[in-house]
Design a protein that fits this description.
single chain; alpha/beta; seven-stranded mixed beta sheet; 8 helices; 29% strand; binds zinc ion
Length: 259
């Protein structure tokens, strides 16, 4: 059974008690696929029993700090496990990284390399999502489709730098919103059905997201990337979502959801 680990559920706020910036991990076939890598993600993953050496790929929705702030530490943690003799990364000692700004991924790798010997023993295969979308990754475990959104107020002239993802895994369809300009930007990812929708509420009202979900009928809706509405008064948000005839929950750091 595939699982979704919520490592961090906060939007890009100042530090909040009990929550960290955005990072999700899909576990399937004893391997891990990261979707964003906000602060503290490696720490939380390691202490919750996720074997970072079983990482297959890292998908970055966009390069804002609340989505990549933990990437350097994730690289470090993987490399540390190798240097401690815990093994190698599961597939050819290689981590695939999908990102819309490979220059920034390289910069982070450069910082990490300063501190680590033999960093080159670990291979990174980087793929630029800026120039293409649609099906971006397929292996024996899952398929990932990317769809751009307008979070960065772009018109696509220079490619796109912000994405949401559809993951097809073990016969289920999971949609993870990046930071979207409007919920309707997920329409194309939801049109063939959705078993689990994880929607950001950093830029949208809880009520608006619930009403959007009513139109598209995901089997389950989980809120993440929480904004002030949920952070400031979670009980009020929970009362509001309970008025909708849908399976909706507000995720928290450490939640593990079966897909
Ligand atoms: Zn964000």
């Amino acid at each position: 059974m595939a699982k979704l680990h919520f490592l961090g559920t906060c939007s890009g706020t100042e530090p909040m008690p009990g929550m960290h910036h955005t990072s999700l991990v899909i576990e399937t076939n004893e391997q891990y696929y990261w979707f964003d890598a906000g602060e503290n993600c490696a720490y939380t993953a390691y202490l919750s029993g996720i074997d970072v050496l079983k990482t297959r790929a890292i998908f970055l929705s966009h390069m804002h700090m609340d989505h990549i702030g933990g990437l350097a530490n994730l690289f470090c943690c993987i490399r540390k496990m190798i240097s401690l003799g815990r093994g190698q990364v599961v597939k050819d000692n290689t981590v695939e990284i999908y990102a819309p700004r490979l220059d920034l991924v390289d910069a982070i790798k450069g910082v990490v390399a300063e501190d680590l010997q033999n960093f080159k023993a670990l291979r990174f295969e980087t793929k630029n999502t800026r120039t293409f979308e649609g099906l971006i990754h397929e292996d024996e475990n899952l398929r990932v489709t990317a769809r751009h959104n307008t979070h960065l107020k772009e018109d696509g002239t220079h490619g796109w730098h912000s994405y949401s993802f559809l993951i097809e895994v073990e016969g289920k369809r999971v949609v993870l919103s990046g930071d979207v300009g409007a919920p309707s930007e997920l329409d194309a990812l939801l049109e063939d059905g959705c078993d689990l929708l994880v929607m950001e509420t950093g830029h949208h009202k809880v009520k608006d997201v619930c009403e959007y979900a009513q139109q598209h009928h995901p089997s389950r809706l989980r809120f993440s990337h929480h904004g002030r509405e949920i952070i400031n008064d979670r009980p009020a948000a929970e009362a509001l979502i309970s008025t909708y005839p849908l399976d909706i929950k507000i995720a928290y750091d450490g939640l593990v959801e079966e897909i």
